[in-house]
Write a structure and sequence with these properties.
heterodimer; A: mainly alpha; Ammonium transporter fold; two-stranded antiparallel ribbon; globular; B: alpha+beta; four-stranded antiparallel beta sheet; two-stranded antiparallel sheet; 2 helices; 37% strand; elongated
Chain lengths: 589, 112
Amino acid sequence: MQTRIPNHFLAVVLGFVLMLFSNLVFGAEDAKAPEPAKAEAAAVAPAPPAAAEPAPKLPTYFTATSDDPKKPPVWPDPTGGASGVWATPAGDAKGDVPDKLSIQDVYDRMTHNLYSINYVWALVAGFLVMFMQAGFMMVETGLCRAKNASHTAAMNFLIYPLGCLGFWVYGFAIGWGNWWNGPVPPGWYPSLGPGLSVLNEGWGLGAAVDAAGKATGAFTYGIFGTKGFFLTSAVNDVAVMVLFFFMMVFMDTTATIPTGAMAERWSWKNFCLYGLWIALPYCLYANWVWGGGWLAQGGINWGLGHGAVDFAGSGVVHSMGGIIALAGAIVLGPRIGKYDSQGRPKALPGHNVPMVVLGTFILAFGWFGFNPGSTLAGTDLRISFVVVNTLLASMASALGAHIALSFKGLKPDPTMMCNGMLAGLVAITAPCAFVNPVGAAIIGLVAGVLVVYSVFFFEGKGVDDPVGAISVHGVNGLWGVLSVGIFATGEYGAGWNGVVREEMVKLYGSDGVRGLLYGDFSQFIMQIIDCATVAVFGFVMAYVWFKISDLITPIRVSKETEIEGLDGPEMGTLGYPDFQLHSGSKIVE
Amino acid sequence: MKMVEAIVKPFKLDEVKEALTKAGVQGMTVEEVKGFGRQKGHTELYRGAEYTVDFLPKVKIQIIVPDDKAATVVQVITDAARTGKIGDGKIFVSNVEEVIRIRTGEKGPDAI
């Protein structure tokens, strides 16, 4: 069969494959003609290479619109049937007999395969991120005392369903409801297919209008989305489900960070309220950076680099979690016995160091879904760099923490080295796709040193953080966001957030994301704006929330409960009943 | 009859047990205990902050012997448990009024 295919036919197919990869997925790389980047560009397909015939009819997966207004709309597409053709022997009833297929048919099959690779990649990466919940549980529980093990583990457990519930009810709509109208470069094409075009309603400042004076749904400064509450039928699309799942497991990472800093004294009822609230600050800020909101638009609106660039969420996920943790730890106050009468910090040792180390390994493993998965495209071959950069940063940061401890004359405390590795992973999360391996190692090394000094700094200031979450996620999340503006090489991210600057294309051949070491100082300024936004917004939101929720149900357990341990009084189940010295008789009161 | 109670470092338990068995001691009772002596515990570091360990873990061995063997047993324990460093422990010797073997009802030195 193969031999019967004429050579020129194979050449054309190969050409189409190349075109699909280079023009559609990485379209911005080739976008030489600088057009004003508009949201509508997303829906405008690049001309196919064999554009010999006049006005070629484009398939719906190019245009994201139905070509026949009388037919029902193509999107949302609940089966994936509109996304190319599923290459089975039956296929589109023509069968997969190569010489019976037109180039269009081959293209349809190829497109479907492209989506398939991207779907599987994003979903499997999402499964790894979900497994990070186990890592968080082990790190946080291991670092608290045995009398609070059950309570700390339970918080890490229930935040998963509570956070997911909030995300499903309102979070996804706020964060990604107007995703389709975000800034994109000319020729951009969504890796999960045009089903995401249903995410097209939101609210912001400066509504854009088309030639007919009708609102397009895009805004000069996007604030939040409004489509997708409860994932109702309006967003009943296969691509939307991938995006929902992937973004949900990311948010649960943020949600579980404060449970560590606030462990051993946070009342269960107040924690449950928090679990339903967390999607609000998270998804608002995520909208601004990832959902096409005003920080992402900083490049277009203010000419600052490519707008806020945060590849996998050093800022969106980790800074936000760490800063909420800081506000929570301040509102709660330190654990009883953490400071002596002169205010000097005392150690309250965690009860299971091997558990902390295992949790750290689970998190490091999950990070190989977190970072490379954020391409949302297995066909984006930059994933190999993302993986290596993630690896090198975590290596350098674990060693960096060791060096910092030795420098301070301390022994290599394994819990601090674990914090060090996690700090490097947090820091590389934003820059992982944009930097080179040397840059990644430097970012990691700085993170490892920074986390040690940060832990001692917050402890000295009277902020009691049993697990170091504020330093690992908050401080190093901000460092990660900043490091994009320093170390990004410009090799990757051409047209990111819709920015294609003529002078950059002239200078470097394409306008990739570039830090100040590589010639774009404005990107660094934008990253500072991003850091300031998450720090101020996250802290204010969280501080006000914890103060208000404290009025609804007290945020801190009673002194007696705290001294006895939260396991019995709060959970009714001791973490380690065989090893408890007291009887735990209060449980049955 | 005498009761010999020895508080020793936990890792010395096996050596003490073997030495006592060789010396003809047929039974003993062992407890895991915590306590402090003149050193009043010690301080440790955790994540850069100090904490005090007030009560150090020790093992308490309890043996009942006929009067004439008490001095030997004390010597055997002293030799086996000594490291020469702080915290080697203490031995207490006291009189025992009566010993009864529950199974047979035997009393006195025969019941040991």
